[in-house]
Amino acid sequence: MKEFMIRSLLALGVLTGWSVLGAPTPLESAVLTAVRAQHFEQVIDFGAGNEEHPVSALQHRPAAPVAHLPNVDVAVIQLDAAGRAMAWADVLLSRDYPQGLVVPVDLSAGAACVRFRRWDIERADGGTFSRTGARLSTKGWTNDPPLTTDDDIVPGRAQAPYQFMAPYPASLFKLMVAFHVMRMVDLGRITLNTTNIYAVAGAVPEPRKVRDWLEPMITVSDNHATGALLKMLHDRHEIEPLNVEFRELGLGTLQINHTSAADGLGWQPGQIHMTAFDVARLLWLIDGGPGELWQRPEGQQVAAGFLSDSSRAYLKQLLGDQGFNEGLSTANYPTAPNVQAGLPSRVAARWINAANGHVVVEGADYGVDIRALNERAEVTFAHKTGLTFNYGSDAGIVTSLPGKPFRHYVIAFLGNLGYRYADGVFAGRTNFPANDRVSPVAYTRRIPALGRAIDAAVTQLSH
Question: H or E stretch including 281?
């Protein structure tokens, strides 16, 4: 009923927010409070640029707090033990909503009252800059030039009362690739043991089983494996079906556009999209639950059986084996200097060095013996992270471990908070803390603090 109300009011152009839909729920209030408490306006910014940005060229002064609030999108779906949705919330933070905005959402219509805009780094930075930080051009946040319908991620929302420029999801988008590959398995188009040959110009063709491409793409966010799987999707004409399928599921902000058919690369901000509530619902579908989860735009039900039990179990296994626990969870090194403890999650044993207890992933030594803390972990966090110079994300399924206080929920965080941004303690650095050989700090500590605050709130609301 609530989703019908939202769609009807959107069509009439009269949806104005909580004056229509009522007061925030306890979960919505808790997520909003957690977002506000992190004071993202105090994050420091090393300066506009990209992965090759020379920080040392900017050290004529300490890095300053961000000029504008970052764009942050946080969604939570609280579940019971069986996987039924009990409550849900979506909160946006941006220069448009400096106190945070509780978005009126429901399970079927999603965040339909938000006009999501394609990410534009020049609008976020206010223009373009040289490698030494000198301004080269100016661009406005919503004007100079004005936004148009070409900036819309989902068409048909010109009358929506809210708008939000959705940050690039970084490697979180690999979750979409993995989901569609498992749909292809369920439909009999491939198997996990199908050999996929990654053949690109100038390189020796590389054959691997599909499962041997999927595993590193999710657990260590391997870009080479991602390129191989995306090229496979291009070769099999599966890119458009992927986007159509997400639209038909009512997850229309989940999109992969304009990647290269030649090598599966070319991942660009403003072309690959995800928003937190759609990510949360996708994770809920992967986690599963009884009966109808939500309704498609045409009214048909979406149920856990959309993916086979074996495909959902395999995806959860991969997400549970995540190596990079340093965003919403900092379980890789919770007691390291300048690190804030996040979700109290367990690290997969495969990443823990048996000799010293350090987590070592892809050459990064997190520098802390976590064995005792890992034994005291309270939850599993089956998740995928994303990180680039400008963007940071983390999203997954949280499930309490036996004997620990019960909670079961999905959480999604997306923001333009990559390793360009840090905390005040690093303001005088001449190199990025994310590049440190031991205990690299890749995300502002405000992100794990947010994860911990939301976990505490959901735990309380679950009892």
Answer: helix 276-287
Residues 49-81 have pLDDT tens digits of: 877 765 554 555 788 999 999 999 999 999 999
User: Which residue ranges form the domains of the chain, and what is each CATH number?
Assistant: 2-461 (3.40.710.10)
CA angle 379/444/370 to nearest 5° reads 40
**DSSP β-ladder status, 44-45 and 421-422:** antiparallel
pLDDT tens for 421-435 read 999 999 998 889 999
In Å, the largest CA–CA distance within the chain is 64
DSSP string across 6-20:
HHHHHHHT---SHHH
Report CA 378 to chain centroid distance, whole Å.
Answer: 22
CA gap 463, 455 in Å, rounded: 13
Q: What is the DSSP string of 107-155?
A: TTTBSTTEEEE---HHHHHTEEE-TTS-EEEE--SSTTTTP-GGGBSSS
Percent of the chain scoring above 70 in pLDDT = 94
Segment 260-310, tens digit of pLDDT? 999 999 999 999 999 999 999 999 999 999 999 999 999 999 999 999 999
User: How far apart (Å, rounded) are the C-alpha atoms in residues 342 and 326?
Assistant: 8
**How many whole angstroms separate alpha carbon 76 and alpha carbon 360?**
30
Query: Number of helices and strands (H, E) in the chain?
Result: 12, 21
| b/e 292-314 (16+ beta carbons within 10 angstroms → b) | ebbbebeeeebebebbeeebbeb
* Cα separation, 21 vs 359, whole angstroms: 46
Distance (Å, rounded) from C-alpha 24 to C-alpha 16? 14
Strands (DSSP E) contained in 280-388 are: 292-295, 301-303, 360-361, 364-365, 379-387
Question: Which of 69, 74, 211 lies closest to 141 in space, CA to CA?
Answer: 69
Question: Which single residue is written with the structure tokens 């004056």?
Answer: 19
Are the CB atoms for 379 and 357 separated by under 8 Å?
A: no
pLDDT at 58: 54
CB 11: neighbour CB atoms within 10 A? 11
pLDDT at 166: 98
**Rounded Cα gap, residues 165 and 119, in angstroms:** 6
Angle at 302 between CA 79 and CA 384, to 5 degrees: 55
The whole-angstrom separation of Cα 437 and Cα 246 is 39
Joined tokens for residue 199: 């053949």
The DSSP 8-state label assigned to residue 154 in this structure reads S
By residue count, the chain amounts to 463
